[in-house]
Design a protein that fits this description.
The protein has about 140 residues and is α+β, with helices and mostly antiparallel strands. It has helices at about 10-15, 20-25, 40-50, 60-65, 80-90, 95-100, 105-110, 125-135, and strands at about 1-10, 30-40, 70-75, 115-120. It binds adenosine-5'-triphosphate (ATP).
Length: about 140
């Protein structure tokens, strides 16, 4: 089965969406094989989002992602990467409310930055992100 990394971001946790999101996840046939609630520090966010380090929104993204605890999960099912991306909807949660009203970001996100959830964008990103948070030996 394919694996992907899902994160409920600080705004999702603060808004109490964790249980609702987890019900959606399991309702769509994903297994949550690992989960961990953590608070990221600046260094961790800088490293996780290194590909965005030169972007204008990077400092704001670091501030957002360190603003509170997050819930990191490994989701497993056939086609997990693409199916989870589809379920969360577009990056811009404000637009998602109009164009993808059934998506998770439409439900709990706020705008381009505060979009309440993360999903790996490829199987390569998924393995990098999974080993970023979890000990790879036990996630095979
Ligand atoms: P994620 O990687 O979190 O699943 P994504 O792949 O939809 O989201 P990316 O382009 O990888 O989006 O951006 C990573 C995160 O950075 C976004 O989820 C969002 O929180 C923030 N972000 C992206 N673009 C902007 C922007 N233009 N302004 C503010 N924040 C942004």
């Amino acid at each position: 089965k394919e694996k992907t990394l899902a994160i409920i971001k600080p705004d999702g946790i603060l808004g109490n969406y964790s249980d609702k999101i987890k019900n959606i996840i399991t309702g769509y046939g994903f297994s949550i094989t690992r989960e961990m609630r953590i608070q990221l520090d600046e260094d961790a966010v800088r490293s996780f989002y290194a590909e965005h380090s030169s972007k204008s929104f990077f400092l704001s993204l670091v501030k957002y992602m360190t603003s509170g605890p997050i819930l990191v999960m490994i989701l497993e099912k056939d086609n997990a990467v693409a199916d989870w991306r589809k379920l969360i909807g577009p990056t811009d949660a404000e637009k998602a409310k109009v164009t993808h009203p059934q998506s998770i970001r439409a439900m709990c996100g706020f705008n381009m930055e505060r979009n309440c959830v993360h999903g790996s964008d490829s199987t390569q990103s998924a393995s990098r992100e999974i080993s970023f948070f979890f000990d790879v030996q036990d996630t095979r």
